[in-house]
Amino acid sequence: KNDSAESGGVPDFAGRTVCKNFLVGFCPHDWFSMPKRALMPCSKIHSELMKERFDHHSEAAKYRAWYEEDFLNYLQPIARDCDTFIVRERAKCRPKSAGGKVVRMPPDVKERFDEMEKRYADLVRGSEEAADTSVAKSKELMGQAMVLNEELDTIRAKYTTEFQGEDICEVCGVKYPLGGGGAEWHDKQSHMKGKTHQGFAMIRAKIDELLGKRKEWDKYRSARRKEYEPMLQREREEDRPRERQRDREKDKERARPEERAAEAPKEREKAREKERSRGRDRPKSSAKESEHRDRDRDRAKERSR
Prior knowledge:
This protein has 8 helices and 4 strands, in the order αααβααβββααα. It is mainly alpha-helical and 305 residues long.
């Protein structure tokens, strides 16, 4: 396939549906799953084939300069938001408490521990209920409960440590316990293996890299103004109707619960009126039927005479 699309000789990778951030680095739109820290979704194409065509294009340097400048403008607000998050969350870090202890269990251990606690409560309750009918059964259940309670105490002691306070990572904003207060799966070193830390580390490293390339972009500044920026403007204008349509759909979605709430009293009133109407109709119908029966009896009496 040729390097260029059919319209205007624009390369395939320059199409509006292709993610330019991915071409010059990466697209972190789905890296962070926490709602407070999630990025805007990206519906564009992330294609290694497009990246290969981009890298081998005869004017790759020009397109790279354009896309890298946009990429920097995209990444910097993400890093600033992270810095603001860190400042805000640092104030919430808990200090070291005198004599304070903390229990930190890995998720699988915590799940098993919760199941054992529920089983212990069931055994104690069963022992109390059996006491009225069978002392032997009550003692048996209480014995099982005490054995289980000892296991719970052992697990709790294993994961209980002195609380040394908390700190927050200056790269990603993840909080972790200080000293020996954390489990193996959550401390200063282990959190660095997590997706959040690795993602923000890559973003900050890329920002530093791109800041060092700004002088290289200057040679393509004139071409950017003449070729690239008008193309971006056209794309924005073409996207505007779709954006307005999406906004209208979102507004409708938000309005639906309010409309349903507003209509609910009317619907209830209609239902009540319907019931009242039925109630009014029933006596009339019964009266008419009774009148017909009385006339039939009178005719029958007349004939019998």
